[in-house]
Amino acid sequence: MSHNENQISGLVIKQVALLAIILILAALICFNLALFIPSLLGAITIYVVCRKYNFYLQEEKKWKPWVASLALMLASLIIIILPLYFIGDLLIEKLGNAKVYMEKFNIFIEKIHTFVYDKTKFDLLSKENMTKLKNFAGQFSTTALSGTFNTLTVVMSMYFILYFMFEKPRLFERILASAAPLKRSNVSLIGDKLRKLIMANAIGIPVVALGQGIVALIGYFIFGAPSPILLFALTAVASMIPIVGAAIIYAPICIFMIAEGQTGSGIGLGIYCLVVVGLTDNLLRFTLLKKLEDIHPLNTVFGIIMGMNLFGFMGLVFGPILISFTLLLIQIYRNEFSEDDTPELELSSKDKNKELEERIDLIV
Predict the structure, then answer these.
(1) What is the pLDDT of residues 162-173, one digit of tens each?
(2) Which of 1, 118, 132, 246 is the most buried (most CB within 10 A)?
(3) What's the pLDDT tens digit per position in 285-331?
(4) Where are the domains of the chain?
(5) pTM summary value
(6) 363: Cβ contacts below 8 Å, ≥ 6 apart
C-alpha cells in the first residue's frame, strides 16, 4: 500500500475544517443568545400550530401578510399563551412566598405521615426521607418559579420572531430546507415528524392536562378540598407526567382530608378522582393524543424534568419536544450515513412511509 493511500485527502480536511468553524460559530451564537432560545422554540411551536391557517389566509383569502400575521398572533395569544400564563401566574401567586409555602407543605407532609403510621405502623417516610422530600420540594419549586419570572420577556421576543416567520412563510421554509445538509427525503421526514411532535406536545398534552384539571376542580369543590384553585393548577401540571399523573396530587390530598377528620369527603374525592379523572385521562389520551402522535412515556418524563430546569413552566411543552427531536436526529443520521441494508426513505407513497416508520421509528 502506497504512502499516498494512507494520507487523508484534502477534501476531507476541508470538510472537517469547515464543520469545525460552523460548530464554533454556532456555539458562540447559542451561548450569547441563550436567553432567546425559549423564545425561538416558542415561535417555532406556534408557527407549526398555525401554519395551515397562515397559508389559508394569505394564499386563499388573499389577506395581506401583515394582517394575517397579526391576526394569528392575537389568536395564539388568547388560545395558547394566556391559559398557560394563567396557570403559571396562579402558581407563582400561591407559591411565591417560599417561607409560608414550605411551612404549609411541612404541616401537610407531617399530617399524612402521622396518619399512615398510626393506621398501619408503617414508617412511610422516615425523618431522613421527610427532610429530603421537603428540601427537594423547596428546591424544585424555587427553580421552576425562577425560570418563569422572565415569561413576559420570552413572550415578547417570541412574537417578534414569530411575526417574521408568519409574514413570508414560503421563503422561511425554503431557507430552512435549502440550508439543511441532508437528503430531501430526510428533510421531509424531519418536517413531518417535527410537526406531529409539536402538535402533540403543544396542543394534545396541554388539552389533556387542562381537561383533567377542570374535572378534578369540580371534585375539589364538591368535596371541599383545601385551596381548590391551587390544586387545579397543580393537578393540571402533574397530569402531564406519565404513569403517576394527577394521582401525585389528589392522592395525598385525599389522605390529608381523612387525617383531618373529613373521612367521607376524603374517600369520596378519592373515588371521584380515580373514576372520573382517570376516565377523562384515558379518554383524551386514547382519542386526541393517539391521533396526533404516540410519544413514548419516557420521552415525556425526561423531557419535563429537563425542560423545567431549562425553561421553567414552558419546559412542560418544550422539554419533550427536544428529547423526541434528538432521537429523530439520531434516526436521520443513520439514514444519511449508515451503510447497512436499511432501505432509504421513500416519501412518494404513504403506505411505504407508514410501513417504514413502523420498522425504524425511534420516536414511538
Answers:
(1) 999 999 999 988
(2) 246
(3) 777 766 766 677 777 778 877 877 776 666 777 788 888 888 888 88
(4) 1-32
(5) 0.68
(6) 193, 197, 293, 295, 296, 299, 324, 327, 328, 331
16: left (phi over 0), alpha (psi -120 to 50) or beta: alpha
Closest to 140 measured CA to CA, from 323, 316, 314, 305: 305
Hey, how many other C-beta atoms are within 10 angstroms of the C-beta on 134? 16
How far is Cα 58 from Cα 166, in angstroms, rounded to an integer? 10
User: Cα torsion for 50, 53, 54, 58, to the nearest 10°?
Assistant: 180
Q: Determine whether 269 is exposed, middle or buried from the number of CB atoms within 10 Å of its CB (0-12, 13-18, 19+).
A: buried
Question: Cα–Cα distance between 251 and 124 in angstroms, integer?
Answer: 14
Query: What grid cell was written down for 100?
Result: 409560608
CA dihedral (303, 304, 308, 311) in degrees, to 10, reads 50
Cα–Cα distance, 153 to 38 (Å, whole number):
10
Question: Helix H segments across the chain?
Answer: 3-6, 10-32, 37-55, 65-76, 82-95, 98-120, 127-146, 151-167, 169-179, 184-199, 205-222, 228-238, 247-259, 263-272, 278-284, 290-292, 297-311, 315-337, 350-360
DSSP string across 195-242: HHHHHIIIIIHHHHHHHHHHHHHHHHHHTT-SSHHHHHHHHHHHTTST
Q: In this structure, which long-range contacts are made by residues 88-96, counting pairs with CB atoms below 8 Å and at least 24 apart in sequence?
A: 88/148, 88/151, 88/312, 88/313, 90/229, 90/230, 90/233, 91/145, 91/230, 91/233, 91/234, 91/237, 91/313, 92/145, 92/148, 92/149, 94/227, 94/229, 94/230, 94/233, 95/141, 95/145, 96/145
Burial class (CB in 10 A: 0-12, 13-18, 19+), 34: exposed
Contact 101, 234 (CB under 8 A): no
